[in-house]
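Before any further analysis, backbone shapes were mapped to integers, which produced the following:

***
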Amino acid sequence: MTKSNLSLDGLLFQATKIDLTDNILTITLNRPKKKNALNNVMMNEICYALAYAKQERSIRVVVIAAEGDIFCAGADLRRENSDSNVPKLEGADDISIALRHLYKPVVCKIQGSVLAGALLMVTNSTHAIAVEEAKFSAPEILRGLWPHMVMAGLFRVMPKRAGLDFVMRGQSIDSKKAEDWGLINKFVKASELNSVVDDLAKELASLAPGTMQFGLEAYEKQDAMAFNEALPFLQKQIAKTFEGPDAKEGIAAFLEKRKPNWDE
């Protein structure tokens, strides 16, 4: 199945829960008895939901949450029977790429510890808010393995020496260190997590959606460029932004001393 004219109608999401409210799509990892480990069903459902979010103009923000005590324990290599009928999309089986190419705000709502491959979601989202009790680890080296795929996102948010120590020793870090090292935006009390993430998601959803998407796409593209290539590319993007409907509405609203209407 290709990534066009996607729908949620009639789909049975087995490993995740999907909710769409007020321009915010929430994907909730829903295998708490398995520590929300990423099996093939869950990964396919996440990638499908992200593709749907990219398709739908009305969806302005994505939140990734989880049930249970663990946010996600990484990959689950065991095969299980599934009732999920969520289609598999061609070329849409990599969560990191799906997140980075969504070009919309994605908030990881981290209610518990994050291990191994779960870092793919945290490092490639635009925002990550965690409870102070959460622990973060890349324990692969302790099993004779290495977090190869995780590194692509990890070293784009963490300082290199901190990130190297993190993956080389496989030891967990607490939320304070995760915040200090840029792995998360901030940590909060467990009782505050819902309100903090809700407020952040609503704020992001209230901002110019077309410009947000265009700007995040420019950010992702310039991130792979040399500095001397990035500057002329970004200069062109500035001109295109001014020509867009969001900029015209935002400037008009400012001059007319009113709130902008992004829905028109």
